[in-house]
C-alpha cells in the first residue's frame, strides 16, 4: 500500500511539520479559574506526534470564555501554567499554536466572572448554557460594544498573542468562527450596527482585519493563523445572501496580510459538509499559503481531500480525543479507538488522559 499523504512531512518556507495531521482545537473544559489544570500537560504531551497541535479555546479576557472551565491567557498564573504545557509538547518534538477567543454573546455572566456579555449588537442568542450551579440557563442579552471601546478589544487580542508567545507557543490562531465575537461582527444577523463596523462587507469585516493586523504586527505573519466557519449554522446564525462574497473578501484581505494559514471548520450535518468543494477551490485561488480543514474527517476522507490539492493539512478532533497516538495508528493501519462523549467536557482525568496508545 502506498504511503498516505497524511503522514508525509509538510515543508514550506514558513513552517516545517513532521506530518499533515493537526490536532484540532477543542475546549475540553479542564481549567480551574482559567488556569490550565496540570493534567493538561499530560494530555497535550500524549498527542505531540501531530504535525501541529492547536490548543483549547483560550479566553483573551475574564469574560471571554463561552463555557465553564475554559482556560485563559490574560494573567501571569495562566501564562505560567501554559508554559509547562508548551514545554512538554516541545520536549516530544511537537509544535503547538494557541487558539485565542472572545466568545462575545455566547455564555452567561455566572461563567464570565459576573461580567455582562458583549457583542457587535444587542441581540440575544435563543439558547441555554450550563452554569456553575449545574443548571442550564438562557444566555443573557449582550451589551453592544461602543464604537470607542472597539480598539480596547482589538488590543486585547494583541496582548493575548503577546502572552501566548511569551508562554512559548509556536504561534497563535485567532478564533473568528462558530458564532463567537469576531463572527458576530462578520454576520449581518448578529451585526445591525450603523457605524463603520456594520452594514457593508468592508465594515462587517473591519473588526476581524484590525485584529489580524495587530496580531501580525506583534507575532510576525509566519506565526499567525485564523479559524473561519463559512456557511456554518450555529447559535442563531444562519446563511445570508452575501455570505460567499463576504468570505471571498476576507480571503483576499488575509492574503494581503500573508498570514501562515487559514483553518476552515467544516461542520458535517446530516452527512453533508457545510463547506462545498467549489468554495475550497475558490479559496485556494484567493489564498496561497496553508489551508487547513477540520470537521468529521475519517482517515479515508482526509486522504481524499488532501489529494484535491485544495487543502494542505487536515485537523482531527474526536479521533484525537480517543487516540493519543493517532499518527502512529494511521501510519501502521492500526484500529482506531472509540471516544466517550460523556467525558468530552467534564470528568477530570477519565476520558482525558487515560486513553491508551495502541
From TrEMBL:
One of its GO terms (molecular function) is oxidoreductase activity, acting on the CH-CH group of donors, NAD or NADP as acceptor. It is an enzyme of class 1 (oxidoreductase). It comes from the Bacteria. Coiled coil: none annotated. Residues 6-335 form the NADH:flavin oxidoreductase/NADH oxidase N-terminal domain. Its EC number is 1.-.-.-. Its cofactor is FMN. InterPro entries: Aldolase_TIM, OxRdtase_FMN_N, Oye-like. Keywords: Oxidoreductase. GO terms for cellular component: cytosol. Belongs to the NADH:flavin oxidoreductase/NADH oxidase family. This is N-ethylmaleimide reductase. The lineage of its organism: Bacteria, Pseudomonadati, Bacteroidota, Sphingobacteriia, Sphingobacteriales.
Amino acid at each position: 500500500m502506498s504511503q498516505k499523504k497524511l503522514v508525509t512531512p509538510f515543508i514550506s518556507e514558513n513552517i516545517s511539520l513532521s506530518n499533515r495531521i493537526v490536532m484540532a482545537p477543542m475546549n475540553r473544559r479542564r481549567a480551574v479559574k482559567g488556569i490550565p489544570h496540570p493534567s493538561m500537560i499530560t494530555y497535550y504531551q500524549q498527542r505531540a506526534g501531530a504535525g501541529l497541535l492547536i490548543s483549547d479555546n483560550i479566553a483573551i479576557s475574564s469574560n471571554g470564555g463561552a463555557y465553564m472551565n475554559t482556560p485563559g491567557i490574560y494573567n501571569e498564573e495562566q501564562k505560567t501554567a501554559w508554559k509547562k504545557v508548551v514545554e512538554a509538547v516541545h520536549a516530544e518534538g511537537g509544535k503547538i499554536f494557541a487558539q485565542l477567543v472572545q466568545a462575545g454573546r455566547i455564555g452567561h455572566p455566572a461563567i464570565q466572572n459576573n461580567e455582562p456579555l458583549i457583542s457587535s449588537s444587542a441581540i440575544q442568542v435563543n439558547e441555554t448554557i450550563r452554569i456553575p450551579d449545574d443548571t442550564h440557563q438562557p444566555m443573557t442579552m449582550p451589551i453592544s460594544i461602543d464604537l470607542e471601546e472597539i480598539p480596547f478589544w482589538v488590543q486585547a487580542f494583541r496582548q493575548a498573542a503577546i502572552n501566548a508567545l511569551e508562554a512559548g507557543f509556536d504561534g497563535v490562531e485567532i478564533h473568528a468562527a462558530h458564532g463567537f465575537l469576531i463572527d458576530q461582527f462578520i454576520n449581518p444577523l448578529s451585526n445591525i450596527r450603523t457605524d463603520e463596523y456594520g452594514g457593508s462587507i468592508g465594515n462587517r469585516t473591519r473588526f476581524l482585519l484590525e485584529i489580524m493586523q495587530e496580531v501580525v504586527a506583534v507575532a510576525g505573519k509566519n506565526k499567525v493563523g485564523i479559524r473561519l466557519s463559512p456557511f456554518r449554522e450555529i447559535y442563531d446564525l444562519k446563511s445570508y445572501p452575501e455570505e460567499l462574497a463576504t468570505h471571498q473578501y476576507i480571503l483576499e484581505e488575509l492574503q494581503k496580510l500573508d498570514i501562515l494559514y487559514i483553518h476552515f471548520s467544516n461542520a458535517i450535518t446530516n452527512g453533508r459538509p457545510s463547506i462545498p468543494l467549489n468554495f475550497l477551490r475558490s479559496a485556494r485561488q484567493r489564498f496561497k499559503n496553508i489551508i487547513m480543514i477540520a470537521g468529521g474527517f475519517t482517515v479515508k476522507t482526509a486522504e481524499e481531500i488532501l489529494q484535491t490539492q485544495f487543502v494542505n493539512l487536515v485537523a482531527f478532533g474526536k479521533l484525537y480525543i480517543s487516540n493519543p497516538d493517532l499518527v502512529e495508528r494511521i501510519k501502521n493501519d492500526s484500529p482506531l479507538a472509540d471516544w466517550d462523549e460523556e467525558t468530552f467536557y467534564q470528568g477530570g482525568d477519565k476520558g482525558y488522559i487515560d486513553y491508551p496508545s495502541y
